[in-house]
Amino acid sequence: MNERPPHFPPGTRITDLFTVEGLVRLAEGRMFYLVNDHRPDVPHRRCWECGTSTTPRSSAQCLGCGAAFRDRRFLMSSRWVRERFDAYEKFARRQLSHQGIAWPVEVIRQDDQLLSIVPYNGEGLMVDEASPLPADRVLNLAMRLTGTVAFLIVNGVRLAGLTRANLLISPDGTVRLYDLEVQSVQDDPLPEDERRDIVAAIAELLRRYCDVEAEPIARFFEEFEASGALPTLFGREVESRYDAFAALPARGNIAAMTDVGLTRQLNEDFWGWRRLSDRSALFVVADGMGGHDGGEIASSLAVQTICRVAGHREATAPPPVEAMENLLDEAFQSANNTVKEQAESKGSDMGTTLVSMLVIDDRVAFLANVGDSRAYLLRNGSLHQLTRDHSLVAKMVERGRLTAEEARHHPHSNILLRTVGTERDVEIDIFKVELEVNDRLLMCSDGLWGEVEDRDMEAILNTYDDLRLATRELVRASHHGGGKDNVTLVLYQVPA
Ligand code: CA
Questions:
Q1: pTM to 2 decimals?
Q2: Domains within the chain, CATH numbers bracketed
Q3: pLDDT per residue over 216-239, tens digit each?
Q4: To 5 degrees, how large is the angle CA 140–CA 30–CA 471?
Q5: Distance 162 CA to ligand 1 centre (A)
Q6: Cα→Cα distances 58→11, 54, 359, 395, Å
Q7: Ligand 1 centroid – CA 8 distance (Å)
Q8: pLDDT 10s digits, 282-337
């Protein structure tokens, strides 16, 4: 995969139209900038209402339509993997008008990058939104995405995928598609058999914004993800269940987020949660390794397998609390075998860390881990690490050969002694915690704890009552720490 190019510094001129204000966000395969149309060096200015570009800069009004000029700001995305440049340009030339799409006013090639520029009016990026969203927001998003994607399909636009990086949130909360990953554009509507993948992508995206309490919606999306039924049908089904689904409870006591970080191009982390029964819920974080077509597959497979196996076990014969350790062990072994089989069939050395938390009756938690993704407990304002890392440096610290601080910066800090998917059997550590009201449990990949000191994580957790805000701030802190790795975290609070 091509390297991420250096970013444009503030003041960089983009054609005769724009000036870069600054880089605002990095995402997988993208850089996002704020730009404006303040260009005193250019004698004429473009009117964004009618397109006239011959009005002298000194004039206060457009010569074409008479509109008053005002300074405008824009959001500019840059991509640099060239294979889909032509398709995106062809798509942009179509000028399809749809309220669900933020249409580019300009698409420009500069310095081997493709720049797509849309008007900016205070929109936010979905990549900054932690899960879960309230059920009604998920449902509105579902209908919005379905309608817009159906429109694209009818107009022959084939998307290579759809992720939250493609979603722009207006200040009033409406979401528009933006900066799409267009595979190709044709004159005729896409054939039915090619609609499956995009429906699966929408369903998966939505499922990850569902609260663990909103299990029926998550299951519904899961079924659609598997069936790949037409987007219009998907939309109608969502609509017909809207009232029932929107009434599902949310307790506001969980949050999760994953982010690619500031330097990696691929996010190999994954997280998941699942309600197993009336009594119990499972939360998982995985940090995959093995590069493209490896790490991200290992981590998602491991999370999906552990959730499925634990869910099945709990549904068929819920074990007594004492036997929860066996349930976790069994689920980890299944995840291990699944990833290992996949690795062997692909001839890949993929593997993953895995940390999971089984919460029963909001009263007791069983934590299990393999590798160096961690679980922490925040109790009475102090943060305690619950898990032990299965890493070379952790072993050296245990033996007194390194300090914790030296371990953090050690050149071999990434060497793991145990991972999921690399050996026939995997040995897991299990910790049991008797929970107290307002305890917070945090599970995270090393992209968080490697970039943010424990005391800073503790300060953030103590500052934000809202778990989604705390989650977002922890991700921000990892960026400030350097953002050298993917970062993923799941946060749970014992309700009062
Ligand atoms: Ca990592």
A1: 0.93
A2: 13-123 (3.30.200.20), 125-246 (1.10.510.10), 254-493 (3.60.40.10)
A3: 999 999 998 888 888 889 999 999
A4: 55
A5: 24
A6: 21, 12, 66, 69
A7: 27
A8: 999 999 998 777 999 999 999 999 999 998 887 777 677 778 889 999 999 999 99
